[in-house]
Protein 1
Amino acid sequence: MLIGQGIDAHRFAAGRALIIGGVEIEYELGLAAHSDGDVVIHALCDALLGAAGLGDIGRHFPDDDPAYAGIDSRILLCRVMASLRERALAVRNADITIMAQRPRMGPHIPAMVACLAEDMGCPAERVNVKATTTEQMGFVGRGEGIAAAAVVLLDE
């Protein structure tokens, strides 16, 4: 068994779609990033890569590489999973926490779970997504952005 953890955060930006956990959420702001800014998938990729001892998302998909400008983070997750499959590693479970004061994430969580499970090639029962606010503390609480943390367990 191999355990990995990942964390990501992005500030809000005007003129961008808000994509969280592979799901587009209707909101007046998106997240600033070189890719689509999906903090859930970025944290998840870091956790998966960390568990496998493969570094981090920035090493594999550098933010100064034009090939990744605006890329759908689900593509990055699928590429990470291909690397894990090459090493005979499979997801035992993933637990993800979204930290967002706004917008509300709860209604979108089932769709996020479905997207993530599909991209990781595992049953939806092995993927847990939950959301919390920071009680109006810090950059998340002030509504400046969104953060996510992920923990994964891989089987060899």
Protein 2
Amino acid sequence: MFTGIVEDLGKVKSMKSGLNSMQLTLESKKIVEDIHLGDSIAVNGVCLTVISFSNNLFTVDVMPETVKSTSIQSLQIGHAVNLERAMPANGRFGGHFVSGHVDGTGVILRKRKVENAVYVDIDISEELSKFCMLKGSVAVDGISLTIFDIKPKQLTVSLIPLTFSETLLGIKREHDVVNIENDLLGKYVINHLERKKESSPITMDFLRQNGF
């Protein structure tokens, strides 16, 4: 479990590609300060497992399904990546519940500066869009952000200066692909309601009619 508060911008040092899988070696002095075999690390919002580490480097395996369904497939040697270690039980919860299980990808449509903020418009699929709500949470490349504008198949988030300068979203440009993880709690609620449509009086229409 993660919080979406990126700890470090790491760097891809080497890659080994299988037919549909990958192995990545990443550089990050901060992350390796406290790391163990089997630890979960969010890499651009994708939960991956540490299989080896030394000095300022650690290595993770990427399975075929992850390669296929996330932006990991577009990484190249030298690329920067957002990194976050799993949340400790005694740590501060600065973002929101982030599982590291990416739901899909989006494409940056536009970035624009508005006073001290940078607005980012992201094109997403209709399937991802149904889990988004105004002022709700979303993880974009593993960054916990708040949706402040939502349109059919598009969401907008706002970056504070620190997020812009210390994460990958400050580097990425229009047309770049980003990983999207919808709010975990919202997904459970919608999944439950959709499965209980016929047997339960509590439906999406019922909730809307009663102000939810």
Protein 3
Amino acid sequence: MLEKDIEKVLVSEEEIRIRSTELGKVLTEEYKDKDPLVLGILRGSVPFMAELIKHIDAHMEMDFMTVSSYHGGTKSSGEVKLIMDVDTAIRDREILIVEDIIDTGRTLKYLKELLEHRGAHVRIVTLLDKPEGRIVEIEPDWTGFTIPNEFVVGFGLDYENHYRNLPYVGVLKEEIYSN
């Protein structure tokens, strides 16, 4: 049913699984003796985080934050809002932020600076990186896939809180969001 709204698949379910396995091996080595706090950014990161952590063979804790700059629609509002803060103590901790996509970079830059100000050492892994959309300077430490500047949904990414449950990442047909 949802597939009818997708113009094309950019990253398949199988590609996501394979890349998550590869990233998990790298992160296992990186964090083998560090007990990081793996910090998912709600809501979009949940599918990627769930897939990724299955492949990290190291001690870790998990927590979540909700930070938004979209407030509905297809473009960032430019205003970053902290909606739900982390519950875990983070001073002097290794934090691995897990994100679904880095587009303008505003939200992630704000979040990284906030956590570093609180005394954490922060690194970032993202499923998708869209460098053409970047407005502020920030780069992930690890990237699943670099994608073109298209409006994508699926595997956690949404349009008006729909399409998150697609098992792949696809380009949403323009007529769906241009009304």
